[in-house]
Amino acid sequence: MTTFAPAPTDEFESVSARRLFDIDTDLTVTRFLGDSPHVPTIDTNYRFNKPTTLAILAGFMHDSRVLVQGMHGTGKSSHIEQVAARLRWPVMRVNLDGQLGRMDLVGKDSVVIRDGQPTTSFQEGVIPWAMGQPMALILDEYDAGRPDVMFVIQRLLEQNGALVLPDQNRVIQPIRIFGCSQRLILSDWET
Fold it and tell me: Nearest 10 degrees: CA dihedral of 9, 62, 189, 93?
């Protein structure tokens, strides 16, 4: 597995959500004691919306999937990043704007030179890399994802979903996944 940056330590501390997020709650949350270059920078002027913050915290505390929905430019991704910053959680933000392909998410075989000889090597994509370490994955512009990309993501979003990489003989269990969407996706019931 490729490691681009050190992960935070396995050491945690319990802190008051009221103190960290300035919201009216008695919730206690855990945060990393260490640091990582993938932890977003804290915006000291950021003001947290209580219901959204509690939903995002549930995602972090229970390894859950959370969809944040709102109009363009309302700060959905920023809200998740600011919660992560205060919890010192590394974040990988992936924009599903249509330029990202399935192989970018899953990975692909590439020809590399080893010991002067060409050989194939699997280069893991964003999802296996992010899921292999303590990291929150933000799927931004979730409602703009291409169908081939959404088929990969769909399995991860199911209750006991996992990403199967048969050519690597690996099964990757999803962790903290956050989606940001401009419109609520109602599928077949939408008129």
Answer: -10
